[in-house]
């Protein structure tokens, strides 16, 4: 379905709060007696207008469309700013609008949203959660859920492949984000040759049936393929290897899988071609630029919520008439 909101435009006004990026950089000083911190006064200059216009239909995989990832750009599209500061201001404004709809979804407490994020190692699945989804966490630490999927444990492998997925579906009212998901059981199993073809190829239809049933039961699923280029992955893996606070994310498996880059691109192309539906669409998001990626995914989330049109529940009459002494 092409929603009324397939084009998104956002203008940021200088009345929005200062983003953390512009806050003063002073640090707390720890003394034997306690902690001291002082921040200089700030007198911000007016910020210039910044705008974006993103056509989301260009990223959506139409059901049955033949996808060849090697022909799809990983570079940021037209219409998004190139400066990080401008993108952050726009994302902040997007988050405000998304939060309004998210509060309705949470209050309505009937349906949920699930973004299934797949992509090569270092394609930005973790960063997407941190930048796009985590800031939407409600004050009560509700509203947002995340699950990630690793090589199946003994217990998981003793069940069918959808068992662990079912256990992580977001609660009613919540927005969930999967860092990898049931598509590992097609792509990884195929490329790493973990099961015969008849096993993984039967899963195209099995995931479609599963997603249809979950959709009918109230979970709106959107699938995101974070599309990075091979050169960009090399830079990110090198950065992980060489930066102390990123080294915990670096492992030899990432480098080994990179050697099968072409097989992964082909396996993902087949998944995108065969499992995008109107109800649970795939979007191929160009992910070489992290800020553009964030703005595109936030835009898809906003469009998804807008189309769901969640409503605050009506207070029952007896409660509405309740006298408070
Ligand atoms: P990471 O996301 O970097 O923590 O890595 C998780 C690893 O688990 C990746 O190499 C995935 O391909 C792998 N993985 C996740 N699910 C499966 C699965 N069902 N079968 C095989 N490998 C999997
Ligand atoms: Mg990894």
Number of helices: 12
Overall form: globular
The pLDDT mean sits at 93
For the secondary structure, the number of strands is: 9
The proportion of strand residues reads 5-15%
Radius of gyration: 22 Å
Tell me about the biggest sheet?
Answer: 5 strands, parallel
Assigned CATH class of the domain at 82-308: Alpha Beta
- At CATH level 2, the architecture of the domain at 82-308 is 3-Layer(aba) Sandwich
Output the helix-strand order: EEEEHEHEHHEHHHEHHHEHH
Q: Which parts are unreliable, with pLDDT below 50 for 5 consecutive residues or more?
A: 1-5, 14-18
The CATH homology group name of the domain at 82-308: P-loop containing nucleotide triphosphate hydrolases
Structural class category: alpha/beta
CATH topology category name of the domain at 82-308? Rossmann fold
Bound molecules: adenosine monophosphate, magnesium ion
Main sheet: strand order: 6-7-5-8-9
Secondary structure: helix percent: 25-40%
N- and C-termini, Cα separation: 51 Å
Notes on the structure:
This protein has twelve helices and nine strands. The N terminus is likely disordered. Strand 2 and strand 3 form a beta hairpin. The protein is of the alpha/beta class and 325 residues long. Helix 2 packs across helix 11 and helix 5 packs antiparallel against helix 10. The relative contact order is 0.19. The strands form three sheets. The chain has a five-stranded parallel beta sheet with strand order 6-7-5-8-9, sandwiched between helices. Strands 1-4 form a two-stranded antiparallel ribbon. The chain starts with 6 loop residues before the first strand and ends in a 5-residue tail after the last helix. The chain has a domain of 227 residues: P-loop containing nucleotide triphosphate hydrolases (Rossmann fold), CATH 3.40.50. The structure holds adenosine monophosphate (AMP) and magnesium ion. Magnesium ion binds next to loops.
